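Running this now, will post back.
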Amino acid sequence: MDSFLSFGGDGEIQFNQKKVRVKVVTLESLIEYFIDPPSFVMTIGDTQTFNFQMKALNPPVEPPSEPPGPPVKTEVFLLDNAYKLTLQGVEWSNKLTTGNRQSNEFEYPFTPDNIGSYSIYATASCLLEEVVVPAKSKAAKFFFLLGCTSGVDVDPPKIEFFVNNKPLGSGSYYLGQEIQLEARAKSLSNASISFNASKWSSNDYLVKGFDPGLASSPVTLLSPTEMFSPKIKFFLWSPPSNSSQVSFRFLWAINDHAGSNSVIIVFQRPKCSKKPGISSSFPRVATDTYVNPDTNETINNVWYIGYATPSYGIEVFPVVHNETDIQYAFAFLQLFQNAHERSLVNGNHEFALTKPSGFYWKDGGFPYLGFAPVSHNTELELNGLFEDAPKVALDDNFYGHSTTLQVSASASYRLFLMAKITPTNEIPYEKSIWCPIIALDWVWGGKAERSPTTSIWSEIPSTLYFQEPLEIKFSHFPDWVGCGSITWGVNR
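Update: finished.
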């Protein structure tokens, strides 16, 4: 005979004409259930796995043996193994993550979209059934829902910066040195986290390459596209008028969280400690020897406006102070702009111009006359690195009747003192570039005319001029569009 009993609590019930004493307990008084971990602090971009756990508060002395399994316990035996509670599924959710992810899995991998405090919700579906069942009886089964929560605090990641794969600030940096600057995101457990997006911004002049041996366009700058990588490579430089540092703002995003960090790299640099010494002579109209560059043939008594050899027109003696703790080499690089014009016997005009207008050409090779090494923590005057004697031939018809009546010469120059790290084991030759540390502007010119009767050339009164080199401020590397000699032509 089947009996159906209703247990509302402890007390007595009528059973087969007898009063039977019973004790009623709730499931919650027999088990402990919770989310593991119950609370957690993590970093945006990291993933933490939560799982639902349950265990008997008073487990049997000898519970049934269980084979090794996953960290989630899916069966619990209760009341001296008379009942078995089975975890059938868990529904997970949280109210802040995009999509409010739900799952029926026992474990919940949680990847937050943003920083802040989150609540993880778990609702477990459980089956309670009798284990020991009398003969000809049917095992009782009951279904339960168990709910619990876990709290999660999500913090921003640690953003660390590295120079040449070493922590920023752990070593010394130098003018002209190649730098690989990298940003890395780390979790609280020091695990690496990937950026969803990143960008460097800087108001500094970021040089990717400079080759003074090229005939044109020697400078390569970091492109805007390259600034979107967490890792950028450039050479250290800033104008002499600025402080010896480069500054960046690094903007980044991980999931839905965005942030930014400031980065400053301070470096050592050599300097010009005094105004350069200058020796010069005024331009004039005179005859000089001409050497044909193609045949090496010498022609005497050629008329020029400019400087006559062997007296050089100008020399510069810079005084450098290498305040760094490594050795540097120094050399000069000169650029020029020409605006020469001449009038011919037939009434035509010809021009010798650097084009396009306003752009510089490179004057000769590099280094201009050689280079000089200067040891660390040394102040030294440099001699023999630069001397120039510009001049313009007044008539290039050296063998026949002169075809030129008047010549106007005008030239401007920009002279750079360059410095480069002397190679070391840590900074080999290819890991540094020549960098400008001072710039000087100077000009010269004048006008001359030929006597139609004697063919003697003379200065047009008060037209010869010369401006000694003056130091200027500059914010960019030397750049030029051409190299070599300028020939006469009819077009401007």
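Residues 11-155 form a domain with the Immunoglobulin-like fold (CATH 2.60.40). More later if anyone needs it.
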